[in-house]
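Researcher: Good morning. I'm working through a list of sequences from a screen, and I'd like to move beyond sequence-only analysis. For each chain I'm collecting a predicted structure so we can compare shapes side by side. This is the next one on the list. No need for commentary yet; just the structure.
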Amino acid sequence: MRLWAIALPVVLGLVLLPFTFASADESKPLKQMLVEKGVITKEDAATVQDTVFSSWVDRITFSGDLRIRDSQFFDDNNANGAYNNGVNQNRLRFRLRLATELKLGDVAVGVRLASGTGQQTGTNQTETALFTGKALWIDRAYLSWQGSQTKWLKVTAGKLPNPFFVVYSGDVVWDEDVNPEGFSESFKGSPAEHVNLFFNAGQFVLNELGTNNHDPWMLGEQGGISVEPTSRVKTTLAAAFYESINASGRDSNPLGGYVQQGNTRSAGPNPPAGTLLNNYRVLDTTALVNVQAGPIPIALMGDYVRNLANTTTTGMASGKATGNEGYQLGAIVGKAAEANTWEVAYFYKLLQTDATLADLTDSDFGGSGGTARRGHIVWGAYNFTKYAQIKLKYFMTKSITPVTTAASVCGGTNTNGCGDVNRLQADILVKF
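Model: Good morning. Structure tokens for this chain:
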């Protein structure tokens, strides 16, 4: 297919989007519309609302979003192990998420369904396979408790939202689509005016192997402080420690999920090819500074991550580089949130091979996400209404791992995205 045949509908969508959603904020409540059309009287409307719907409507919230994405992958003159064997590629995708939360006193029940393939770091659904139906997955299903007299404590169980304080630069550890499974506890307090403290903890099941009580788990703790010295400046600092238990040295893929590039793995045969060779005891420090520069908000942020476990290269494919550190620094100028607002951003990221658990990091950085990669990220976004946004995002990435044995270097059986890859994403996003 010629490139213009794919690019034309994307360009038209971006041009027509502001006109399509120009009146989205002018919608009227159903009750008002029924009264205006003479279907019911004002008195009847008030009675129905109060006696039939009120108690349940107050308890339930619904939300969701639909994103249409055109992704362009560009091989950066690296045919050996580059994305899709050195071939440039265009991919059309959508993401659909539907969420609801029900309040039952101090308890909340949350459910979210999402498109995709069930991958832990992504809910994108590729438009392919001759118009066949696409699946919805359980993206979240959790119970949370927060006492009316103990607002400082929240406890959650199930497949839950990430409980840790994470900004954009935090995707060196957590892809934004990751929803852990297990338990979390969050504490917060304010010992002084304009000073807030928080502590988050999580006990997450990574996989159930069913043998010898050696199932992989992750334990995480995070403490932080937020200080607002003036109305125009706010600083937040946090430090987290994540320990993955029984995640290495036993099976070819003890975690059971989608394998991303990076992490030192065995070249086989003993232990089997693809086996994680190192442990992951990860320290992650986060800094965020919000500044209001006149009418323009600016967010400066960064993460530094280091694997404190001893790492080894014994048993891996020859020629493979390693390392246990990483970082991401950058800034977002503006904030595309309300109608007629915009933002631009720039970040630089470097993640060495064993800085963190590759299978949970950002899946968009490079061809297949993960670690063992460095590069630049830049984007611009504009909101035509509170609910509709267009965004262009560009990744310029290089592998920092010599490509010698694709199966071990790129991660298990996933050989895509191992070389130097640039990626352009054009998004249309509607929230509801």
